[in-house]
Amino acid sequence: MAANKTETTATETTQLPEQTKPETPVQETPKAEQPAAKPARKPRVRTTAVKKPAASKAAAAKTPVARTPRRASTSAKKPVAEAIQELPAPKHISLEDPALYTNRELSWIEFDRKVLETAMDPAIPLLNRVLFLSIFFNNLDEFYMVRVMNLQKQARSGAEPTGPDKLSPAKQLSEIRRKVLEIVDQAEDLWLDQLKPALAKKDIVIAKYADLTKEQQENLNRYYDEDIFPVLTPQGVDAGRPFPMISNTSLNFVIELEEIGKEGKVRYARVKCPNNVPRFLFVSNKDSTVTPNLGVTVSEGVLILSEDLIANRLETLFPGYRVITSGLFRITRNTDGEIEEDEADDLLAAVRDYVEQRRFGSVVRLEIERGMPQRLQDFLVDHLDLIQVQIYRYSIPLGFSDFGRLMRIDRPGLKYPETHPRTPKEFEPDRNCFTEILKKDLMVYHPYDSFNCVLEFLRQAALDPNVVAIKQTLYRCGSDSPVAKWLLEARRRGKQVTAVVELKARFDEEQNMNWAEEMERNGVNVVYGFAGLKIHAKLCFVIRREHGSLVRYAHIGSGNYNAASAKIYTDLGLFTANRAICDDIQDLFNVMTGYGRVKHYRELLVSPNTLRGKLVEHIRREVAIHKKEGNGHIIIKCNQLVDAEMMKEIYEACRAGVKVECIVRGICGLRPGVSGVSETLSVRSIVGRLLEHARVYYFHNGGKPEVYFGSADMMTRNLSGRIEVLTPILDPVLRTNVMKQIIEPQLKDNIHAWVLLSDGSYKKLSPAKGEKIYDSQEEIAKHLNLQKA
Question: Using a CB cutoff of 8 Å and minimum separation of 24, what contacts does 565-569 make?
Answer without folding.
Answer: 565/476, 565/478, 566/446, 566/447, 566/451, 566/454, 567/421, 567/447, 567/451, 568/447, 568/690, 568/691, 569/446, 569/447, 569/690, 569/691, 569/693
